[in-house]
Design goal:
alpha/beta, 2 domains, eight-stranded mixed sheet, 17 strands
Length: 412
């Protein structure tokens, strides 16, 4: 690495308390403090078009460099971001160069949205192609959010990037993988060869087992909008050096599963059952792994030369939960142990990714052994689906599918 370049850990997709289903604790000062403890150098503000959140951004954040702001609460910096939903319920992530650009974009979108004043993730009566047109006017970057999830994603609705963004498809320089996918799955799709992958948390909570559960390690000279833009476009030596995130099996939509009772289904059975669960009558949602299988042209991924490694991690509170058998992440026992390790090693990311495993095992043998296993990709998972998160397990449990040694299709 050039002596002028540094590496920054960034999470560019979060939400405020003004988005649906989010914690009332999603306030800028608390986000800043927790992000610093996590080890993030930069986080997106999220929800930058919401009037009250934008007011907070203007009042509580101070501009440090082009497009980068800080809170006096902590060292972590902020960049202006927002997620929007188009007329087909496809979600898009926008990264903006300034607070004033958020104000301009908000004025442009007003006439196309009934909930811009109410929801941090507004719905727009616009196509993906039109959203890019408006983003271009304010020099914002735009790309598909959690591109493979079955409810609100690009590949839920379309079979290609061009299908969504029309004549603007060449302006799409990044794609957010989402919790249920990683580079190994996405790089089976040839059209993504030239696109930068992002791994962001999309968190609705400020606590470190959610905030930064997925993040990007980016190689920059300066922490500002221009260098972030150039890293996404892979210009001037700026680039993404590492994607870090959960094993896709932990995602809520990894396998095809019933959205009511979460029974898992193999694709052929879901199709035969016409996407209705025989157990409860609920709707079966197609899993990311099956959707990618439909789109893929490669049986094994073909990573382009610019693609960085993807490191699967488990949030530290979840590691401690595995080591202790305590399931409540916010319990005093887990939080005390979390604090002890973070105090010792500086940040949670240092514990999970960077610190010497021998030192971690010396400080906490149980936690150290699990971290060593996931760094070697030797953790077993019970995969998520239908809206239910998957989970890591030390017991070697296996996924159970409907009809596997239980009931036969002929019984229905």
């Amino acid at each position: 690495m050039s002596e002028n370049m540094k590496q920054y850990d960034v999470d560019l997709h979060i939400h405020s308390k003004y988005s649906g289903g989010t914690s009332s604790s999603m306030e800028l000062p608390l986000i800043a403090r927790q992000a610093e403890r996590k080890g993030l150098h930069l986080v997106g503000t999220g929800d930058a078009l919401h009037p009250r959140w934008l007011k907070d951004i203007k009042e509580k954040l101070i501009e440090e460099s082009q497009g980068v702001y800080f809170s006096r609460e902590a060292k972590t910096r902020f960049m202006i971001t927002v997620e929007v939903e188009d007329y087909k319920r496809v979600h898009h992530l926008l990264i903006l160069p300034s607070r004033s650009s958020a104000e301009s974009l908000r004025d442009s979108f007003k006439k196309y949205s009934a909930n811009l004043e109410k929801d941090g993730r507004p719905t727009l009566r616009l196509t993906g192609e039109e959203i890019v047109d408006y983003a271009k006017e304010v020099d914002a970057l735009v790309g598909p959010a959690h591109a493979f999830t079955p409810w609100t994603a690009l590949y839920k609705e379309y079979d290609s990037i061009a299908g969504c963004y029309g004549s603007n498809f060449r302006r799409i320089n990044f794609l957010e993988l989402g919790l249920s996918a990683d580079s190994y799955l996405a790089d089976r799709i040839p059209e993504l060869n030239g696109i930068t992958f992002m791994s962001n948390s999309d968190t609705h909570s400020p606590w470190p087992h959610r905030l930064g559960r997925e993040f990007n390690r980016i190689r920059l000279k300066n922490l500002d909008f221009k260098d972030i833009r150039d890293a996404i476009k892979r210009k001037r030596g700026r680039r993404f050096a590492l994607n870090v995130g959960l094993n896709p099996k932990e995602g809520k939509y990894h396998l095809s599963a019933c959205s009511r009772c979460y029974q898992r289904f193999r694709l052929k059975d879901a199709v035969m059952l016409k996407w209705r669960c025989p157990e409860c009558g609920g709707r079966i949602k197609k899993g990311v792994v099956d959707r990618i299988g439909e789109l893929a042209k490669f049986k094994i991924p073909k990573h382009p030369g610019h693609r960085p490694p993807y490191l699967h991690i488990i949030p530290l509170a979840e590691v401690i939960s595995l080591a202790t058998g305590i399931r409540t992440m916010t319990s005093k026992a887990i939080q005390d142990r979390w604090k002890s390790l973070v105090d010792l090693f500086g940040t949670e990311i240092n514990v999970l990714v960077d610190s010497d495993i021998t030192e971690i095992k010396r400080a906490d043998p149980g936690v150290g052994r699990i971290i060593e296993k996931f760094r070697q990709d030797k953790i077993h998972y019970v995969a998520g689906g239908g809206g239910q998160y998957g989970r890591p397990t030390l017991k070697g449990e296996r996924d159970e599918f409907w009809g596997s040694g239980q009931r036969q299709l002929t019984e229905f």
